[in-house]
Amino acid sequence: MKCDIKMMLKAGVGLAAVVAVAYATFPAARELITALAPALFFLICPVMMFFMMKGMQSCHKEQDVRNPEARRAPQPDTKNILDERH
After folding, report:
1. Which of 2, 39, 37 is nearest to 16 (CA)?
2. ∠ at Cα 54 (51, 58), nearest 5°?
3. What are the domain boundaries of the chain?
4. Which is nearest to 21 in space by CA: 10, 33, 12, 32?
């Protein structure tokens, strides 16, 4: 998964919806929401990249646990190699 413009627009629209709902729901915190919203929009790409990297690490851990034999390299048969030399 890469951080392209389409994904960034979707995340930006989602964040705008969350900010709008929070602004409408919590009238006492409107100043705080208004103050934090630009910082959230500025940090959206690094935060998304952080969560994507965490998600990728969890996938690799599952593969290692499920199939530990997949990472081992095949060992050459030394008996056949020695027989062919003689």
Report:
1. 37
2. 140
3. 28-64
4. 33
d(CA 33, CA 38): 9
Angle of CA points 50, 55, 58, to nearest 5°: 130
Q: What is the DSSP letter of 86?
A: -
The CA-CA-CA angle for residues 1, 64, 66, to 5°, reads: 105
Regarding pTM above 0.85, the answer is no
Tokens 């890469």 appear where? Answer: 2
CB-based contact 52:3 (threshold 8 Å): yes
Tell me, what's the pLDDT at 41?
A: 84
- Residue 84: HSE in the Cβ half-sphere, 13 Å Cα cutoff: 5
